[in-house]
Amino acid sequence: MACSAAAAAADADALFAAALTGTDGRPAALAEYRGKPLLVNFWARWCPPCRSEMPELAALQAEYGAQGLTVLGIAIDDDPVAVREFLAAYDIGYPVALGRDTGIGLMQSLGNASAGLPFTLAIDREGGVLLRKLGAFGKDDFHGVAQELMR
């Protein structure tokens, strides 16, 4: 989805200003990711395509994290305990915030009017949205996006 630089930055500002909760129950400070290359993935435990791409996202964080890339998951789930158990069972080591209703509204404001899942955004260091993708990614797609973000 193409967008102007001003619209892209405004979208990223909405993400960084969002009031979400961490899996530990404390507020998640998304503003701490401003100025860093960021791959944001909205997902849910009950979404098979979401679940299938999470190991690739974890591998991406492991491979590119030392270079500054952060993968950030935003779970659209009601049950924080179940999300924590899921993340532990699947050894997901990247940061995850709990979004539910706020996350749904955030997805819609970021260009996903249907609030379908999975939904992934690539945000560059300047806060520009380089990519919006509704639907599952493949392994090569993730690596291509990560390499683009790291330029």
Question: How would you sum up this structure, described in words?
Answer:
- This protein is of the alpha/beta class and 151 residues long.
- It has a single domain, classed as Glutaredoxin.
- It has 5 helices and 7 strands; from the N terminus they run αβββαβαβαββα.
- The chain has helices at residues 5-17, 48-64, 80-89, 100-109, 139-149, and strands spanning 20-22, 27-28, 38-43, 70-75, 96-98, 119-123, 129-134.
- Strands 2-1-5-4-3-6-7 form a 7-stranded mixed β-sheet, with helices on both faces.
- Strand 4 (70-75), helix 3 and strand 5 (96-98) form a beta-alpha-beta unit.
- The longest helix has 17 residues, at 48-64.
- The radius of gyration is 14 Å and the shape is globular.
- 36% of the residues are buried.
- The model is unreliable at 1-7 (pLDDT under 50).
Report the principal-axis shape.
Answer: globular
Total number of domains? 1
Q: How many beta-strand elements?
A: 7
Level-1 CATH class name:
Alpha Beta
Helix content: 40-55%
Q: Report the C-alpha radius of gyration, rounded.
A: 14 Å
First CA to last CA: what distance? 20 Å
Short description:
This protein is α/β, with parallel strands linked by helices and 151 residues long. It contains five helices and seven strands.
Which key phrases capture this entry?
151 residues, Glutaredoxin, globular, disordered N terminus, alpha/beta, 21% strand
